[in-house]
TrEMBL record:
Residues 35-377 form the Beta-lactamase-related domain. It comes from the Bacteria. It comes from Rhodococcus indonesiensis. Its EC number is 3.1.1.103. This is Serine hydrolase domain-containing protein. Transmembrane segments: none annotated.
């Protein structure tokens, strides 16, 4: 490991094989390395930018029982990918292809069925479309892999009436909804759009929903099982769907066979931007590094400053009927929740099921991202590993300001 100032940049075409640790971020690195002491802890990677410069790029632990995590290991990061998908749509909005306050049906006519004709892009991106249900949405244990079938089912679905009282986290369906709008207004596949709008400008390839076949050997093995109880997944989902306080979670995130699907190689054959994104921490930190730096990084402008102003604006402060909390949704992001009394209230990002996450804090110029193959708690968004790492990073960034 080399201790460096942030002056040396990550080369997008040839990723570094040595680690980066800015001396100011040594406490953050120490916390990270203590997390991966044996194979039971799996592995992970942590990366950060400060004012557009890389200050952390580190990794540790095991990608599988007999394989160490290396500089080019990638990980399935679940809902962390929602932030990437949202950034794609913001890029299209900047060019006038999408208007946040237009009905979704303007771009996707079939969407106007079943009373959804007035639902806007803004409402959809802040989880107020009432289309949170993944459970029973499409038939078959691996039905969610058919993105066309999922899009058709969502277009035909009736919105949940609770949408009128507050947001309901679209845990699985959000990515399909955003991707379909993007596809309709461009005529390109979502894989092409991610390459064109995110990976290409940032010079890093590892923004994958459909993972190229020749890159799959790099994917860390996810463990343990997703099921939060000893009972079979189907039984657990059925029971939770009947409990008033947990019904929304079961509807949104416990589709039939999803526990098997998330661990199957078939998950990398499809484009499901709400949950099947595969990334390096380096790539995520670079994307959010631009958002923390006025929308620009290394001379590449990802978003205009006026777009960032809209992106940072809280869209709803109401209680989310799926999560049971007030996430204060932005346009496709939530704040970077960290284990601090003084939260980074102007931050934007997205955490993922089981522990991964990334966010940008424009107030300090910090972006930070964490990916792991060791699933932590079974909460719908994350566990405490990344909130603690993020907190340590924010503390350093505030001192450096």
């Amino acid at each position: 490991m080399s201790a460096e100032t942030g002056a040396r940049r990550v080369d997008g075409e040839h990723p570094r094989t040595e680690m980066i640790v800015d001396p100011r971020f040594l406490p953050v690195a120490d916390r990270f390395f203590k997390m991966f002491r044996d194979t039971r802890n799996g592995g992970g990677a942590l990366a950060a930018y400060l004012h557009g410069e890389p200050v952390l790029d580190i990794w540790a632990g095991w990608a599988s029982r007999d394989k160490r995590w290396t500089h080019d290991t990638v990980a399935l990061s679940f809902s962390t990918g929602k932030g990437v998908a949202s950034t794609v749509l913001h890029r299209l909005a900047e060019r006038g292809l999408v208007d946040y306050d237009e009905p979704v049906a303007t771009y996707w006519p079939e969407f106007g069925a079943a009373g959804k004709e007035s639902i806007t892009v803004r409402e959809l991106m802040s989880h107020r479309a009432g289309l949170h249900r993944a459970r029973g949405l499409v038939p078959g244990r691996f039905g969610l892999l058919d993105s066309d079938a999922v899009a058709s089912a969502l277009a035909a679905a009736s919105p949940d009436p609770r949408r009128l009282a507050g947001p309901g986290y679209h845990a699985v369906t959000y990515g399909n909804l955003v991707a379909e709008i993007a596809i309709r207004v461009t005529g390109l596949s979502f894989t092409e759009l991610v390459e064109q709008e995110i990976a290409g400008p940032l010079g890093l390839r590892e923004f994958w929903f459909h993972v190229p076949q020749d890159e799959r050997h790099r994917i860390a093995r996810v463990f343990p099982r997703l099921n939060p109880t000893p009972a079979p997944w189907a039984v657990t989902g059925t029971v939770l769907s009947r409990l008033p306080g947990l019904r929304g979670v079961a509807e949104a995130g416990m589709a039939e066979g999803f526990d098997e699907l998330a661990r199957s190689p078939a998950a990398h054959d499809a484009v499901m931007p709400g949950w099947n994104g595969v990334f390096t921490a380096r790539a995520l930190a670079r994307m959010y590094g631009a958002l923390a730096n006025g929308g620009e990084l290394d001379g590449a402008r990802l978003l205009k400053e006026e777009t960032l102003e809209q992106v940072l604006e809280v869209q709803t402060r109401r209680r989310d009927y799926v999560l049971g909390i007030r996430p204060n949704w932005r346009l496709g992001y939530h704040p970077g929740w960290v284990a601090l009394r003084e939260q980074p209230l102007q931050s934007i990002g997205h955490f993922g099921f089981g522990g991964s996450g990334a966010f940008a804090d424009p107030e300090t110029g910090l972006s930070i991202a964490f990916v792991t193959n060791r699933l932590g708690s079974v909460t719908p968004i994350s566990d405490m590993r990344f909130p603690r790492l993020g907190a340590a990073g924010v503390v350093v960034a505030r001192r450096a300001a």
